[in-house]
Amino acid sequence: MNAIVIEHVAVEELPDAWRAQLCAAGNARVTVRIEEEPGEGGRAAFGMWRDREDVADAAGYVRQLRVSRFPHG
User: Hey, where are the domains in the chain?
Assistant: First the structure.
């Protein structure tokens, strides 16, 4: 798993929603760690259609789009 770690970030530079969850002064420094949540990897191509009602079967939709390029696949 890849992670981004940013050290020594001033609390006052954090988004409002993040600051609201901290009990620290605006001049305090924190470390921000951002990780991809497990279980979501490998689904990015189909995940972008997850909430679309007109694309209930994302895999089938993509197969139909590719028929003209890959007629025997």
Answer: 1-36, 40-73
